[in-house]
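=== RUN LOG ===
request id: a7f3
mode: sequence -> structure
chains: 1
length: 156
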Amino acid sequence: MEFSSKVRTCLWFDGQGEEAARFYVSLLPDSRIETVVRPDPEGPALVVEFSLAGAPYMALNGGPQYSHTPAASISVLTEDQAETDRLWAALTAEGGSEGRCAWLVDRYGLSWQIVPKALPRLLGSDDGAAAARAQEAMLAMSKIDIAALEAAFRGA
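=== RESULT ===
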C-alpha cells in the first residue's frame, strides 16, 4: 500500500484513531478518509489517512505511550458565528472540554482552536486601541462571540 501524501501531520491515538478520523471528517466540508491500513482485516486500523478541509492528516493507533498535548492543535478558521457554534458544540460534546480564547479539547484529547475570521482581522487592526479592546474581550471568552468582540472593538 502506498501513502497518498508526501507530508502529513500524524496524530497518535490509543485505539481510537479510525473513530476520531471519521468524526473529524464529518465536521468540515472537503474532508474525507483517504486510506485505512488494517494489518488484520478483522482488527482495528493501524493507520488512517484523512484530510480536513483539504489538509492532510494521519491517525496512528500507536498505543498508550503518548497522549495529545495543547502544544499541538488543529486550528480552524470559521466564516461566522453559526459555523463557530456548530464546531464548538460538536467538538466539546461527549467528553470534550472548553478552554480559553478559542481553544478546546475534544473527546479524544486533541486540542483545537476554533477561530472566527473576525478575530485575526480585529486583533490585527491598525487601530491599536481598538485591537487592544478586542483582545481584552477575547481573553475573557472561551468560545469566541463575534458580536461581543466587534462591540469591544468599537468601544461599545
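=== NOTES ===
The two ends are 58 Å apart (CA to CA).
The beta strands are 9-13, 32-37, 47-52, 55-61, 73-78, 97-98, 103-105, 111-116.
=== END ===
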